[in-house]
Amino acid sequence: MKKILVANRGEIALRIMRTIRKMGIKSVAVYSEADRHSPHVLFADEAVYLGAAPSSQSYLNGDKIIAFCKELGVDGIHPGYGFLSENAEFAQKVTDAGIEFIGPTPEAMRIMGSKLAAKESVKKYNIPMVPGIDRAIEDVNLAIEVADKIGYPVLIKASAGGGGKGMRIVEKADDMQEQMERAISEAKSSFGDGSVFLEKYVTSPRHIEVQVVADKYGNVIHGLERECSIQRRHQKVVEETPSAIVTPAMREKIGEAAVMVAKSCNYVSTGTVEFLVDDKLNFYFLEMNTRLQVEHPVSEMIIGLDLVEQQIRIARGEKLGITQDDIKPNGHAIELRVYAEDPLNNFLPSIGTLTKYEKPTGEGIRVDDGYEEGMTIPIYYDPMIAKLAVHGKTRTEAIQKMLQAIKEYKIEGVATTLPFGTFVFEHEAFFSGKFDTHFVKNYYTPEKIKEKQKANAEIAAMVAVKYWQERKKMLSPVEHKSTSWKRRLAH
Amino acid sequence: MAENKKTYMVKANEFVFTFNQEEIDKADFIKKNPTEFNLIRNNRSVNAKLLESDITGKEVKIEVDGETFELLIKDELDQMLDRMGFSTVSSKHIKEIKAPMPGLVLEVAVKEGQEVEEGDKILILEAMKMENSIMIHTNARIKRIAVSAGQAVDKGQVLVELE
Questions:
Q1: In chain A, count of helices (H) and strands (E)?
Q2: How far, in Å, CA of B120 to CA of B106, rounded?
Q3: What is the complex's ipTM, to 2 decimals?
């Protein structure tokens, strides 16, 4: 491969291009009207303009991207995450055009893209799945029968559902009839499809996922787990590896399960197998993400692999250069996603210009970002500014390093999730490792951040008055006889 | 008024504090160098750094614990002037609704001439893939709708005028 086009923007495009350059390959950036000034465009060897700012007119225009590849003699496309990365049709078109798609096969993407097909695919490998019934049901008596078998509480889920819609928790048999009716009617009105199925409701779920790497010759290894339970709006904000609760025995089991899931769909490239873990450390297969995951830096930090480099090597037909035995965790890594969102106002997007932007630096600190001071955060895309990742010898050391790095990260002009990060990393539940996906609901209120800000503001206010009064004294003609106050003004 | 009863009102970002001279004098405060200070308050030892100052020293920027605060000190005279100034605008009512953030207008939920009540949805503004309902915080009548669905708006741009 001599030239790779990165069909993405922002931090991930830049991060991929860095590896491309390191490998002596030329990079091609794509950009929309909103991104002409973005670092990924400035960094690339070549750049092509895709269209207007909305994704549908730019980063999602697969045909245009493929046409540019042909024109520029590109021999590989890296899709990053989001946009076209899990679009099997696009991957197929790329392959048909004689260009290497740096990622899994369209077939694997198709299987894992459908919840039911994915379950079907992994069934024969004995992968634990959340107990329940995975076909559409309407019969209340059958539902009660299933629920009795798997134990309450159970979750009624819409087949076509997503984002929490059409989901109902049923605590006891008496409630089944009404909840079923309401779930079916909700599913009908929301998705035009009334089919629902039943699953055991995991009360204190943790979200733990496993990194996998697979070559084209059936060799699959796993790159340990990532703990991603700290979420807001069902989206991850904090990730770490290793997980504080995974024992070596469980690590081996969950890792093997992930490898099996990958093998079940003849997976190629890097991917992520997501599991739900209950309070008794039972794990259940949720889904597989067929792409480079946002939070891959924490894995890179502790397994010492450049996952993008692995993807490119695999795409050009190389065999995995390592075996499972080579994968040993080195220390502990934590990532905080820095979003342009206001944690004091329900995590609503906070858009604006980065009037100040200074990154923390130092050993074991990694910032993956796609912004510079003075840039405006476009309204059209994901509001993530950066991923702040730290590495320490131990979990405690990593947490302390993270807290310090957050302090040194100066962002002005927009509100960010940095103060939320401080809240999480100082919280007893995070420190002890005893938390689940309800962390935000159970512990977080904006008042807690506000209180701290207020205490700091009061200190600042007092210092300001002190400073002003001292300065007044200096300026008064009676007391001043040297030029020392001039030095003060000059600082 | 006794010197130690003098009060100072300080705005620090969105917070407002009032101190009297006695509190200021009592504060355990040291200066490490012309721009770095340390204050012990409620047994907490905190470092503060002066980032910017205007010529009077009343408007400054100070960093505490990684956070930057913009501060404005008001002495008694400033406070009195404020009270006089504020009294004339206190009964001002809302004449228009402005965009709280840049975004794309997805849907306008009201018509010109319509009577709306507090909490009614005026329009939906999409920003960063999220739909945000813009509500009204008063009872009013829609005088003019200044935007239409599909239009991109800047922060602070007038969306609707009220009467």
A1: 17, 21
A2: 16
A3: 0.73
Q: Which residues contact A261 (CB under 8 A, 6 or more apart)?
A: A122, A125, A127, A212, A267, A273, A285, A288
Size of interface A-B (CB pairs under 8 A): 132
pLDDT > 70 fraction of chain A, expressed in percent and rounded: 95
Instruction: Decide if pLDDT at A484 tops 50.
Output: no
Adjacent-strand bridge partners of A404: none
**CATH assignment of A3-102?**
3.40.50.20
- pLDDT tens for A128-166 read 998 888 788 888 899 999 999 999 999 998 776 655 566
- Catalytic position from the list A291, A337, A366, A395: A291
Whether domain A206-446 has CATH 1.10.287.3510: no
Q: What is the residue extent of each domain of chain A?
A: 3-102, 131-200, 206-446, 456-490
Domains in chain B: ranges and CATH: 3-87 (no CATH), 96-162 (2.40.50.100)
List chain A residues with CB under 8 Å of B54. Answer: none
A467 touches chain B (CB under 8 A): yes
Which class would CATH give A131-200?
Answer: alpha beta
Whether A291 sits among the annotated catalytic residues: the reply is: yes
**Do A29 and A46 form a contact (C-beta atoms < 8 A)?**
yes
Q: What is the pLDDT of residues A332-377, one digit of tens each?
A: 999 999 999 999 988 988 888 999 999 999 999 999 999 999 999 9
Cα–Cα distances (Å) from A231 to A130, A170, B110, in that order, read 21, 24, 35
Per DSSP, chain B holds a count of helices (H) and strands (E) of 2, 15
**A340 or B134: whose pLDDT is higher?**
A340
Residue A59 φ/ψ, nearest 5 degrees: -70, -15
Cα separation, A353 vs B109, in Å, equals: 29
What DSSP assignment string belongs to B67-125? EEEEEEEE-HHHHHHHHHHHHTTTT----EEE-SS-EEEEEE---TT-EE-TT-EEEEE
